[in-house]
Amino acid sequence: MADNVRELRPRLPDTEKITINLGYVDLGQVDLMVQEGFYSNRTDFIRTAIRNQLERHADVVKQSTVRKSLDLGLRNYSREDLEAARRAGEMLHINVLGLATIAQDVTPELARATIASVSVLGALHATSAVKAALSDRTR
């Protein structure tokens, strides 16, 4: 039965893994807060701290997003989107704060022919071949 099941669209992760280095005292204080039940684990503490800082600076983020003309959130670029841009003779400037995804069926040649620049604050998901093809256009 499982042989008949096909995934129509691969599920994208909704988080990106990062690594941070903390001093031993800071880490110990985080562990103490977890042990005392204020947070369920280290990740919960760190996510909460980050969200609090982002909320504290929300006006600056909002102003910068508008000033830099950034798409906020998830932005997907399909093969059809890029082919339409090529037919129209347009070059795309990808400016995303969040997650930018270039479809798996986009060839490096199509990407180079239609994407003038890539600026992503967050994460860019694309094949390694497409990322390599756009490396000179990525900031």
From TrEMBL:
Stored Gene3D superfamilies: Met repressor-like
Record protein name field: CopG family transcriptional regulator
Gene Ontology BP terms: regulation of DNA-templated transcription
Domain of life according to the entry: Bacteria
InterPro entries reported in the protein's UniProt record: Arc_rbn_hlx_hlx, RHH_8, Ribbon_hlx_hlx
A Pfam family reported for this protein in Swiss-Prot or TrEMBL: RHH_8
